[in-house]
Backbone:
Protein backbone atom coordinates (compact mmCIF):
# COMPACT_ATOMS: atom_id res chain seq x y z
CA UNK A 1 0.00 0.00 0.00
CA UNK A 2 0.87 3.67 -0.09
CA UNK A 3 3.33 5.12 2.41
CA UNK A 4 3.67 8.88 2.90
CA UNK A 5 6.53 10.51 4.78
CA UNK A 6 6.36 14.14 5.85
CA UNK A 7 9.08 16.52 7.07
CA UNK A 8 9.70 18.41 9.22
CA UNK A 9 7.49 17.40 12.14
CA UNK A 10 7.72 20.90 13.60
CA UNK A 11 8.56 24.20 11.96
CA UNK A 12 8.91 27.61 13.53
CA UNK A 13 9.18 30.70 11.34
CA UNK A 14 8.97 34.41 11.91
CA UNK A 15 6.01 36.32 10.58
CA UNK A 16 6.62 37.30 6.99
CA UNK A 17 9.07 34.48 6.29
CA UNK A 18 8.34 31.51 4.05
CA UNK A 19 7.60 27.97 5.19
CA UNK A 20 8.20 24.78 3.22
CA UNK A 21 6.87 21.32 4.09
CA UNK A 22 7.95 18.27 2.12
CA UNK A 23 6.34 14.87 1.54
CA UNK A 24 7.38 11.74 -0.29
CA UNK A 25 5.15 8.89 -1.40
CA UNK A 26 5.81 5.33 -2.46
CA UNK A 27 3.02 4.26 -4.82
CA UNK A 28 3.52 5.44 -8.38
CA UNK A 29 -0.22 4.87 -9.00
CA UNK A 30 -1.12 7.75 -6.68
CA UNK A 31 -2.47 10.61 -8.75
CA UNK A 32 -3.95 13.08 -6.28
CA UNK A 33 -2.09 15.04 -3.59
CA UNK A 34 -4.08 17.29 -1.23
CA UNK A 35 -2.88 19.37 1.68
CA UNK A 36 -4.95 19.93 4.81
CA UNK A 37 -4.68 22.45 7.61
CA UNK A 38 -5.93 21.43 11.03
CA UNK A 39 -6.42 24.03 13.72
CA UNK A 40 -6.76 23.05 17.35
CA UNK A 41 -10.11 21.45 18.06
CA UNK A 42 -11.21 21.39 14.42
CA UNK A 43 -11.36 18.95 11.55
CA UNK A 44 -8.82 19.09 8.71
CA UNK A 45 -9.52 21.77 6.11
CA UNK A 46 -8.47 21.32 2.49
CA UNK A 47 -6.22 24.24 1.52
CA UNK A 48 -4.80 23.18 -1.83
CA UNK A 49 -4.43 20.08 -3.96
CA UNK A 50 -2.57 18.98 -7.06
CA UNK A 51 -3.04 16.19 -9.54
CA UNK A 52 -0.38 14.12 -11.23
CA UNK A 53 -0.77 15.85 -14.59
CA UNK A 54 0.30 19.20 -13.09
CA UNK A 55 3.72 20.20 -11.76
CA UNK A 56 2.79 23.29 -9.77
CA UNK A 57 -0.28 25.05 -8.47
CA UNK A 58 -0.62 28.35 -6.67
CA UNK A 59 -3.39 29.99 -4.68
CA UNK A 60 -2.45 33.39 -3.28
CA UNK A 61 0.24 32.77 -0.63
CA UNK A 62 0.09 29.00 -0.93
CA UNK A 63 1.73 26.87 -3.61
CA UNK A 64 2.28 23.18 -4.12
CA UNK A 65 4.85 21.50 -6.35
CA UNK A 66 4.91 17.90 -7.51
CA UNK A 67 7.84 15.85 -8.83
CA UNK A 68 6.37 12.58 -10.08
CA UNK A 69 9.73 11.11 -11.01
CA UNK A 70 11.13 11.56 -7.53
CA UNK A 71 7.74 10.89 -5.91
CA UNK A 72 7.76 13.98 -3.77
CA UNK A 73 5.60 17.06 -3.36
CA UNK A 74 5.93 20.20 -1.28
CA UNK A 75 3.80 22.93 0.25
CA UNK A 76 5.12 26.47 0.16
CA UNK A 77 3.59 29.25 2.26
CA UNK A 78 4.92 32.75 1.63
CA UNK A 79 4.56 35.85 3.79
CA UNK A 80 3.47 33.76 6.76
CA UNK A 81 1.00 35.20 9.24
CA UNK A 82 0.14 34.15 12.82
CA UNK A 83 -3.12 32.64 11.58
CA UNK A 84 -1.09 30.18 9.50
CA UNK A 85 -0.09 28.47 12.76
CA UNK A 86 -1.64 24.99 12.68
CA UNK A 87 -0.85 21.37 11.89
CA UNK A 88 -0.51 20.64 8.18
CA UNK A 89 -1.03 17.19 6.66
CA UNK A 90 -0.13 16.02 3.19
CA UNK A 91 -1.85 13.06 1.61
CA UNK A 92 -1.47 10.88 -1.46
CA UNK A 93 -3.87 8.62 -3.30
CA UNK A 94 -6.91 9.14 -5.44
CA UNK A 95 -9.35 7.05 -7.36
CA UNK A 96 -7.84 3.78 -8.57
CA UNK A 97 -10.76 2.57 -10.62
CA UNK A 98 -12.34 0.50 -7.90
CA UNK A 99 -11.90 2.62 -4.80
CA UNK A 100 -10.89 6.06 -3.66
CA UNK A 101 -8.38 6.28 -0.84
CA UNK A 102 -6.01 8.78 0.77
CA UNK A 103 -2.95 8.00 2.87
CA UNK A 104 -1.85 10.81 5.15
CA UNK A 105 1.55 11.99 6.25
CA UNK A 106 2.43 12.34 9.91
CA UNK A 107 1.82 16.07 10.04
CA UNK A 108 3.87 19.25 10.50
CA UNK A 109 3.19 21.63 13.34
CA UNK A 110 3.83 25.13 12.00
CA UNK A 111 4.29 27.99 14.43
CA UNK A 112 4.51 31.53 13.13
CA UNK A 113 6.05 33.85 15.66
CA UNK A 114 5.72 37.62 15.82
CA UNK B 1 -17.35 21.70 -1.09
CA UNK B 2 -19.81 20.21 1.39
CA UNK B 3 -21.08 21.15 4.84
CA UNK B 4 -20.59 18.26 7.24
CA UNK B 5 -21.81 17.93 10.80
CA UNK B 6 -21.01 15.32 13.41
CA UNK B 7 -22.78 14.41 16.61
CA UNK B 8 -21.75 14.34 19.36
CA UNK B 9 -18.88 16.82 19.18
CA UNK B 10 -17.32 15.20 22.24
CA UNK B 11 -18.10 12.58 24.84
CA UNK B 12 -16.63 10.92 27.89
CA UNK B 13 -17.55 7.25 28.20
CA UNK B 14 -16.93 4.37 30.53
CA UNK B 15 -14.98 1.34 29.38
CA UNK B 16 -17.10 -1.51 28.11
CA UNK B 17 -19.82 0.74 26.74
CA UNK B 18 -20.52 1.71 23.11
CA UNK B 19 -20.93 5.08 21.42
CA UNK B 20 -22.58 5.83 18.09
CA UNK B 21 -21.30 8.84 16.14
CA UNK B 22 -23.44 10.43 13.45
CA UNK B 23 -22.27 12.17 10.29
CA UNK B 24 -24.63 14.31 8.22
CA UNK B 25 -23.77 16.11 4.96
CA UNK B 26 -25.83 18.81 3.28
CA UNK B 27 -25.79 17.22 -0.17
CA UNK B 28 -25.74 13.76 -1.67
CA UNK B 29 -22.23 12.37 -1.90
CA UNK B 30 -20.82 9.27 -3.46
CA UNK B 31 -18.29 8.28 -0.85
CA UNK B 32 -18.19 8.64 2.92
CA UNK B 33 -15.25 7.65 5.08
CA UNK B 34 -14.46 7.27 8.76
CA UNK B 35 -11.01 8.09 10.18
CA UNK B 36 -9.40 7.85 13.59
CA UNK B 37 -6.92 10.44 14.83
CA UNK B 38 -5.18 9.40 18.02
CA UNK B 39 -3.87 12.22 20.24
CA UNK B 40 -1.16 14.17 18.43
CA UNK B 41 -1.14 11.71 15.54
CA UNK B 42 -2.08 11.57 11.89
CA UNK B 43 -5.31 10.36 10.33
CA UNK B 44 -5.89 6.63 9.88
CA UNK B 45 -8.69 5.36 7.67
CA UNK B 46 -11.03 3.00 9.49
CA UNK B 47 -13.44 2.18 6.68
CA UNK B 48 -15.32 3.36 3.64
CA UNK B 49 -19.06 3.57 4.27
CA UNK B 50 -20.87 2.17 1.24
CA UNK B 51 -24.47 3.14 0.62
CA UNK B 52 -26.70 0.09 0.63
CA UNK B 53 -23.97 -2.43 1.35
CA UNK B 54 -21.47 -3.40 4.02
CA UNK B 55 -18.63 -1.04 4.78
CA UNK B 56 -15.12 -1.77 3.51
CA UNK B 57 -12.69 -1.96 6.43
CA UNK B 58 -8.97 -1.25 6.41
CA UNK B 59 -6.42 -3.63 7.84
CA UNK B 60 -6.55 -3.61 11.62
CA UNK B 61 -10.19 -2.57 11.87
CA UNK B 62 -13.10 -5.01 12.13
CA UNK B 63 -16.84 -4.72 11.84
CA UNK B 64 -17.52 -6.11 15.31
CA UNK B 65 -15.53 -3.28 16.90
CA UNK B 66 -16.55 -0.49 14.49
CA UNK B 67 -19.94 -1.25 12.94
CA UNK B 68 -20.90 1.31 10.30
CA UNK B 69 -24.22 2.13 8.73
CA UNK B 70 -25.01 4.22 5.68
CA UNK B 71 -28.74 4.21 5.02
CA UNK B 72 -28.68 6.97 2.37
CA UNK B 73 -26.39 9.32 0.43
CA UNK B 74 -26.23 12.02 3.13
CA UNK B 75 -25.91 10.15 6.42
CA UNK B 76 -23.67 7.59 8.12
CA UNK B 77 -22.99 6.32 11.63
CA UNK B 78 -19.92 4.79 13.24
CA UNK B 79 -20.25 2.83 16.47
CA UNK B 80 -17.26 2.29 18.73
CA UNK B 81 -18.11 -0.91 20.60
CA UNK B 82 -16.94 -2.30 23.94
CA UNK B 83 -14.71 0.71 24.43
CA UNK B 84 -11.36 0.74 26.22
CA UNK B 85 -9.08 3.71 27.06
CA UNK B 86 -7.09 2.91 23.89
CA UNK B 87 -10.15 4.00 21.86
CA UNK B 88 -9.74 7.56 23.11
CA UNK B 89 -9.29 9.50 19.87
CA UNK B 90 -10.84 11.98 17.52
CA UNK B 91 -13.17 10.25 15.06
CA UNK B 92 -13.60 12.07 11.77
CA UNK B 93 -16.09 11.66 9.00
CA UNK B 94 -15.14 12.73 5.48
CA UNK B 95 -17.12 12.88 2.25
CA UNK B 96 -16.19 12.77 -1.39
CA UNK B 97 -18.68 14.39 -3.78
CA UNK B 98 -19.47 12.69 -7.06
CA UNK B 99 -16.98 12.94 -9.95
CA UNK B 100 -14.14 14.03 -7.68
CA UNK B 101 -11.56 12.44 -5.40
CA UNK B 102 -11.49 15.46 -3.10
CA UNK B 103 -12.34 14.68 0.51
CA UNK B 104 -13.90 17.16 2.91
CA UNK B 105 -13.83 16.55 6.64
CA UNK B 106 -16.33 17.06 9.38
CA UNK B 107 -15.41 18.77 12.67
CA UNK B 108 -14.71 15.48 14.44
CA UNK B 109 -15.94 13.73 17.58
CA UNK B 110 -13.57 13.82 20.53
CA UNK B 111 -13.95 10.63 22.53
CA UNK B 112 -12.43 9.99 25.93
CA UNK B 113 -12.79 6.54 27.47
CA UNK B 114 -12.22 6.21 31.20
Residues:
Amino acid sequence: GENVEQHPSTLSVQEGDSAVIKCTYSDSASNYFPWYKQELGKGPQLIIDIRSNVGEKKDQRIAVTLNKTAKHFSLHITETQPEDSAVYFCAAGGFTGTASKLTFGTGTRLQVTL
Amino acid sequence: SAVISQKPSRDICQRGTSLTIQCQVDSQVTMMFWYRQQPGQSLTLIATANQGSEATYESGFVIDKFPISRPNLTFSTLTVSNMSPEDSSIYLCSVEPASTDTQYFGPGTRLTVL
Q: What stands out?
A: DSSP finds no helices and eleven strands in chain A. The first strand of chain A starts at residue 4 and ends at 7. The mean pLDDT of chain A is 94.
